[in-house]
Automatic annotation (TrEMBL):
<dbReference type="GO" id="GO:0005524">
    <property type="term" value="F:ATP binding"/>
</dbReference>
<keyword id="KW-0547">Nucleotide-binding</keyword>
<keyword id="KW-0067">ATP-binding</keyword>
<protein>
    <submittedName>
        <fullName>Iron complex transport system ATP-binding protein</fullName>
    </submittedName>
</protein>
<dbReference type="InterPro" id="IPR027417">
    <property type="entry name" value="P-loop_NTPase"/>
</dbReference>
<dbReference type="GO" id="GO:0016887">
    <property type="term" value="F:ATP hydrolysis activity"/>
</dbReference>
<feature type="domain" description="ABC transporter">
    <location>
        <begin position="4"/>
        <end position="239"/>
    </location>
</feature>
<dbReference type="Pfam" id="PF00005">
    <property type="entry name" value="ABC_tran"/>
</dbReference>
<keyword id="KW-0813">Transport</keyword>
<dbReference type="InterPro" id="IPR003593">
    <property type="entry name" value="AAA+_ATPase"/>
</dbReference>
<dbReference type="InterPro" id="IPR003439">
    <property type="entry name" value="ABC_transporter-like_ATP-bd"/>
</dbReference>
């Protein structure tokens, strides 16, 4: 299992710093949900952890600095799915998802039966089998989102970073996707970090929640500790009540 450590991370764009002083630890096989109001810096933080933005501070996976790893090993260590992906033209869904297997290919660079089996399983579990031969540019927004997530999951990396993975998905596909991530976490010991706007989904799937506001950590803890009406009123300027399902899972409900 891959333990993720973030120490005093700061990042931004050009001269504008968006996040600063962020520190957190996610135990191997854990799930951290990053939440916060619009503009809080959630996507910037995830990109910085993934090494896609210049940053200060340190990111370590399994005790090793991520920047010290060779590119191929880094891709086997950490997978990232952006909120707004740039998809290459001319590829089918299957071709694109197979790109996730690239870090695991042998010297000849050809996919084997195991790689094809991984992709076939993911297409089935994400309801993409019927779209396997479709060109990427013909997909709907939700279909594209599931395809991007399938590619990230195909990497079988120790750490999985997902930026708003349920964007554009109906509730059924959103639940299917998050269930699959949770199943892979249990099966493979994958460490998961997601940004989510839907606070109920964040509360029900994440073991711990980090509340980001104005680029800094405002609170971190279990969903029950962080997602309180008082904290959400303060950080989101929202009127909510916290309900619970029969199994005790929290539901964040807006009130008029």
């Amino acid at each position: 299992m891959s333990r993720l450590e973030v120490r005093d991370l700061a990042a931004g764009y050009r001269r504008h710093r968006v996040v600063s002083g962020v520190s957190t630890t996610v135990d191997g096989g854990g799930w951290l949900g990053i939440i916060g109001p619009n503009g809080a810096g959630k996507s910037t933080l995830l990109k910085a952890i993934a090494g896609l933005l210049p940053h200060t501070g340190e990111v370590r996976v399994g005790g090793r600095a991520l920047t010290s790893l060779p590119r191929r090993e880094r891709a086997r260590t950490l997978a990232y799915a952006p909120q707004i992906p740039q998809l290459p033209m001319g590829l089918t869904v299957t071709d694109y998802v197979l790109l996730g297997r690239t870090p695991h290919l042998g010297p000849l660079g050809r996919e084997g039966r195991r790689d094809l089996a991984v992709v076939e399983e993911l297409l089935a579990r994400l309801d993409l089998t019927d779209l396997a031969g479709r060109a990427l540019h013909t997909l709907s927004g939700g279909e594209r989102q599931r395809t991007v997530l399938a590619r990230a999951l195909a990497q079988r990396a120790g750490v999985l970073l997902l930026d708003e993975p349920t964007t554009g998905l109906d509730i059924g596909h959103a639940q299917t996707l998050l269930d699959l991530v949770d199943e892979l976490r249990a099966e493979l010991g994958t460490t998961v970090v997601t940004t989510l706007h839907d606070l109920t989904l964040a509360a029900q799937y994440s073991e711990r929640v980090l509340l980001l506001d104005d680029g800094a950590v405002a609170a971190e803890g279990t969903p029950g500790e962080v997602l309180t009406p008082a904290s959400l009123a303060e950080r989101y300027a929202a009127r909510v009540t916290v309900l619970h399902t029969p199994d005790g899972s929290p539901v964040i409900a807006p009130t008029r």
